[in-house]
Give the backbone structure.
Amino acid sequence: MSTPVIGVLALQGDVREHLIALATADAVARPIRRPEELAEVDGLVIPGGESTTISKLAHLFGMMEPLRERVRAGMPVYGTCAGLIMLAEKILDPRSGQETIGGIDMIVRRNAFGRQNESFEAAVAVKGVDTPVEGVFIRAPWVESVGAAAEVLAEHDGHIVAVRQGNALATSFHPELTGDHRVHALFVDMVRAAH
């Protein structure tokens, strides 16, 4: 597969920036809102935003079960910030009724790096990317712990901020906001390798 088709879950969050980053990384990128659109993609990005809102909207649009099924079946998926929370098996401090898609054996803490006004940028060394990437952390979660199947790809300040398990990739930070699309290129390579 030379040019994979990768969807961006377009329920909430910085969808446009991910579409641009994926296109720059040689993928055909399209917004996804419905199960029939999900069925047509080779991989999926779950953007940042608000994880409780994404959870509610995924149910509202009939997407939660199709997402879980595709991820369980091995569809490559990449979650940033709230997307990382959506890929976790467990949230330490979930809001009432908040659900995840799952896919990575990890426990996450929402808003762990602080509130909106404590957002920051930092250079992050990510395994699989040759030099550090600029990570934008906005009300970012961190990963408290990972299971044996999950590989830690990056840490910041002693906290896990990037994880991979099989075809699932997740970062606490937003690489799509920096103009550096190497993390997206890493994901596009994962999608190619899976097909």
User: Anything to note?
Assistant: The mean pLDDT is 95.
